[in-house]
Automatic annotation (TrEMBL):
InterPro entries: Adhesion_dom_fimbrial, Adhesion_dom_fimbrial_sf, Adhesion_dom_sf, Bact_Fimbrial_Adh_Pro. This is Fimbrial-type adhesion domain-containing protein. GO terms for cellular component: pilus. Coiled coil: none annotated. Residues 38-189 form the Fimbrial-type adhesion domain. Pfam families: Fimbrial. It is found in: Fimbrium. GO terms for biological process: cell adhesion involved in single-species biofilm formation.
Length: 189
């Protein structure tokens, strides 16, 4: 059997050969992308504690709040105390400095913004308070510009907090659900 190669067939064969070559190079390239380098670093210290709360966070449920009490900017409802436990504090742990971080309310930079969306309350924000070793309650700010220091003991310690809802401006509120995310940062000394 004789095969006759035409000019078109020769070009087609050359193209097929080139595509096959690229596919083998391409496969090798993709295989090389399946690796990762992970750099793990740490410092061992004796002045830290282990958080005694779930790594998914803590929810403070203020329950059903009476919006009739929110009639002017700064009006506050639903203040509720809660604690966070610090476990296994090292012998070098003497104090913890707590700051907060989150999104500030657009009408009240000292309050934490409430998530927006369908069914969300408007005209309100969330305040988070911490009580330091001096017994003074401080409203933690979303920008982290203020802090509370709490003495801690070797072993286990408890930090005292409170949360509330405030009217964030002089405009009337709308009722609805309230959800606000706050990150607490803890620096041990």
């Amino acid at each position: 059997m004789k095969m006759k190669m035409t000019k078109t067939g020769a070009r087609l064969s050359a193209i097929c050969l080139a595509v096959a070559s690229l596919m083998s190079v391409s496969h090798a390239t993709f295989a090389a992308d399946d690796s990762a380098t992970i750099n793990v670093t740490a410092t061992v210290k004796d002045n830290t504690c282990t958080p005694g709360w779930d790594t998914n966070g803590t929810t403070v449920d203020l329950g059903n709040l009476n919006g009739a009490h929110l009639t002017a900017k700064g009006a506050e409802v639903g203040k509720k105390s809660f604690t966070l436990a610090l476990k296994e504090c090292g012998k070098g742990a003497k104090t913890v400095k707590v700051t907060a971080a989150g999104t500030a309310d657009s009408s009240d930079a000292d309050g934490f913004a409430v998530d927006s969306g369908d069914g969300a309350a408007t005209g309100v924000d969330v305040y988070l308070y911490a009580t330091g070793s001096d017994g003074k309650e401080v409203a933690l700010k979303p920008d982290g510009s203020n802090s509370v220091e709490e003495s801690i003991a070797q072993g286990d310690s408890t930090l005292n907090f409170a949360a509330s809802v405030k009217q964030s401006s002089d405009t009337a509120i709308t009722t609805g659900s309230i959800n606000s995310n706050v990150t607490l940062n803890m620096d041990y000394e």
